[in-house]
Amino acid sequence: MLLALVAAGVSLGACADEPTAQVRATTDKILALLADPTLKSAARNSERRQLIRKELDQRIDWATIARSSLGHHWAKRTQAEQTEFVGLFSRFLEETFIDKFETHGGELDKVEYLGEKIIDEYASVKVQISTKDQIVHPVEYRLQKSGQDWRIYDVLLEGVSLVKNYRDQFDEILAKWSYEKLVADLRAKIPPGST
Amino acid sequence: MKTLKSLCLAAGLFLFLWPALGVENPVAQDSPPDGRSTNQNETPFRDPFASVDQPAKAQPKIKDPLQPMNRAFFHFNDKLYLWIVKPSGKGYSKVVPRPARTCVARLFENVKYPIRFVNNLLQAKFKAAGLETGRFVVNSTVGVGGLFDPAKRWKIEAHPAHFDQTLGFYGLGPGIYFDWPMFGPSSARGTAGLAADGMLSPWSYIGGLGVAIGVPAYREENNASLHLGEYESFKKATLDPYVAMRSAYYESRAEAVHQSKVKKQRPTEALPQPLPPLARGDD
Question: What pTM was estimated for this model as a whole?
Answer without folding.
Answer: 0.81
